[in-house]
Design goal:
Layout (H helix, E strand, L loop, with lengths): L6 E3 L18 H14 L3 E4 L1 E2 L5 E2 L2 H14 L3 E4 L9 H6 L7 E5 L3 E3 L2 E3 L3 H14 L2 E6 L3 H13 L8 E6 L9 H10 L8 E6 L4 H10 L3 E4 L6 E3 L2 E2 L3 H14 L7 H8 L2
Parallel strand pairs: 1-2, 1-12, 2-5, 5-6, 6-9, 9-10, 10-11, 11-12
Antiparallel strand pairs: 3-4, 7-8, 13-14
Bound molecules: (5S)-5-amino-3-OXO-hexanoic acid and zinc ion.
């Protein structure tokens, strides 16, 4: 059954350098401005990576807490912290993200080649993250970079139980060099595999780089939700750099409206996700 569209903005990520992508929000002020404007356009969730004073990715606990508080004060967005961080972040720092008391945190369901790097997610680490989120009342978004990550999720839920809130929401991250491709056929295959997960499981999808638009259209037509933002693409169209996260959210909102699946409000999104 299709409903409105949950729109998540992932404004920063850990991979792009501010020097190369000047429009990337890296300071708290830039993040707050982006968050407010994206919320006004129709985003309901913000997937947050933070940077240090030199604009390098960080998982500093103090900064994470300050960011969660500031986003709560300035917006009604659901605050989802990245537990993925950067590929170089140690597991202990990634686990501690949950202690910053966000509404949600990402939880990647397996290891994946990530360009020239490896995004490592050992089984024991996944179990620790999942159970820590259950204990702290943080709702996970399970990040799926490969179809096999859905099998791992089935195993996780079977052995360790449902997440806090009881609702399962996954995000297909498609088109990472080394992960599943950002194609309609793959999205449909991933959606079919949701049959093995608890009834009512919902999904968002995002396509990295040039797969952004095909994945967005495929997800809308398959009843899925959308994640967009400069974490995932810094090119708006061939030869045209993204000007802002707002530009990407506005395009997603336009597509969702064309599909007659308008953006969910933040209140509707909280209900859907069990936040
Ligand atoms: N930056 C990637 C290595 C997440 O946020 O949970 C991991 C990532 C996934 O972005
Ligand atoms: Zn991320």
């Amino acid at each position: 059954m299709t409903t409105g569209t949950l729109i998540t903005v992932a404004p920063t990520g850990a991979e792009s350098a501010k020097a190369e992508v000047p429009a990337l929000p890296v300071t708290l002020d830039e993040l707050l401005l982006t968050a407010k404007e994206c919320e006004a356009l129709g985003a309901a969730v913000i997937h947050v990576h933070i940077r240090d004073d030199e604009a390098r990715p960080t998982l500093d606990q103090g900064r994470l807490r300050e960011t969660v508080t500031a986003l709560r004060e300035s917006t009604d967005l659901i605050v989802q912290l990245s537990s993925g961080g950067a590929v170089t972040d140690p597991e202990a720092h990634r686990l501690a993200v949950v202690d910053a008391a966000p509404d949600m945190a990402s939880c990647t369901m397996g290891t994946v080649n990530f360009g020239d790097d490896v995004f490592l997610n050992r089984w024991e680490f996944i179990v620790d993250l999942h159970t820590r989120m259950q204990e702290r009342g943080v709702v996970p978004e399970y990040e799926i970079f490969e179809l096999g990550h859905l099998t791992a999720l089935q195993r996780l839920l079977g052995k360790y139980g449902l997440p806090h809130g009881g609702h399962v929401h996954v995000d297909f991250v498609m088109g990472v060099p080394g992960g599943m491709p950002g194609t309609t056929a793959t999205l449909v295959a991933a959606q079919q595999m949701l049959r093995d997960l608890p009834e009512g499981t919902t999904f968002s999808a995002t396509g990295i780089g040039r797969s952004t638009i095909p994945v967005m259209l495929a997800s809308l037509s398959a009843g899925g939700h959308l994640r967009v933002g400069m974490e995932d693409t810094v090119t708006y169209a061939k030869g045209r750099p993204v000007e802002s996260n707002m530009q990407l959210v506005a395009r997603a909102v336009g597509f969702a409206q064309l599909a007659q699946r308008p953006p969910l409000t933040t209140a509707q999104a909280r209900t859907l996700l069990g936040v």
